[in-house]
Each structure stands twice: as C-alpha cells, then as structure tokens.
Design brief:
globular
C-alpha cells in the first residue's frame, strides 16, 4: 500500500513542468506562475483522495493549476499589467548555433507569436497552450477547463483563427 506522499510523487510530480508551462502562459509572469503551481501542488496533495484510482492525474492536476491561476488573476485585477515570459524561457532552441541573422529572425518570430498568444483572451489562450504546447487531447482539455468537448473545439477554432489574424497583421505568413 502506498502512502499519500508516495502517491503524490508518483501521480502529480511528473506533471510539474506542464503545470508550470500552463501557469506561465495564463499568468504571463514567471514568479506568479511559480506561486500558482506551488499553491496547486498543495491543493493536489490535500485533495489527492478525490483522484479516482486509474484516473489520469495530468488533466486533474492541470485543472487545479488552472483554477489557481484564475484565482491569482482575479486577485491581481486593478494591479499593474502582467509581464511576458523572460528571454531565458526561449533560449534553448534545438540544433546548432545559428548565425546572427537567423537568431534575429527567430527572436522576432518568437516575439510575434508570444505577443499574439498574449493577446488572446484567457479562455482562448488556455486551450491553445493545452493543445499545442502540452499536446492534451480534446477530452483532457475539456476536463481541465471544465467545459464540454464541443466548447473546446469551438475555442480552439477561434483561437487559431485569431492567432492567424494577429500573426498575418504582424507580417508573418
């Protein structure tokens, strides 16, 4: 028989990177994201018994992270606008060291995509991050967001169309 601590380590800890990624995109502030993930991890530990045996812990935990992020956003209403990701989050690009013109082009493209995602409403940004960056299936996204699968599909369609519009306006194909 496993202890709650062992069960937490086995089921929740493997998803910390995904949780932090989601929190950074939703909150647009790395320190606030760390706080939200820590708060979510504490909630997950406290309510681990609510995770049914055999249930996928990833969407369950990401739903807790999502709720912690939206609680943080609600607390921050009226405060200064949230900042974007810092450059260190984008520095680890695969492949050999590119030439300066390639680096500049990548940085501009990355900045355009970052601005476009940031311009989305939280609901649209959430589904894009969960689908395109975290590669969750529609059912899991629906579980995380607490909405029907059809709503996930609709939000993804609107988010992709809006991203295309924003990136086209910014001069990216």
């Amino acid at each position: 028989m496993t202890t709650p601590s062992q069960r937490f380590e086995l089921l929740v800890l493997p998803h910390l990177d995904a949780a932090h990624n989601l929190a950074r995109w939703l909150l647009r502030d790395a320190p606030a994201a760390e706080d939200a993930v820590q708060e979510a991890a504490l909630r997950a530990l406290r309510y681990l018994a609510s995770l049914r045996e055999g249930e996928d812990a990833r969407p369950w935990f990401l739903a807790i992270v999502r709720n912690a992020c939206f609680s943080a956003l609600a607390r921050q209403q009226g405060r200064a606008e949230l900042t974007g990701l810092d450059d260190s989050d984008w520095d680890a690009l695969p492949g050999s060291t590119p030439e300066p013109p390639q680096l500049l082009s990548r940085r501009r493209e990355r900045d355009a995509v970052d601005r476009a995602i940031a311009a989305l409403s939280p609901a649209l940004r959430e589904v894009i991050v969960l689908r395109e960056l975290e590669e969750l299936d529609y059912r899991s996204i629906a579980q995380v967001a607490g909405v029907p699968v059809g709503t996930v599909m609709s939000r993804l369609s609107r988010a992709r169309a809006r991203l295309k519009e924003l990136l086209t306006f910014a001069g990216w194909p």
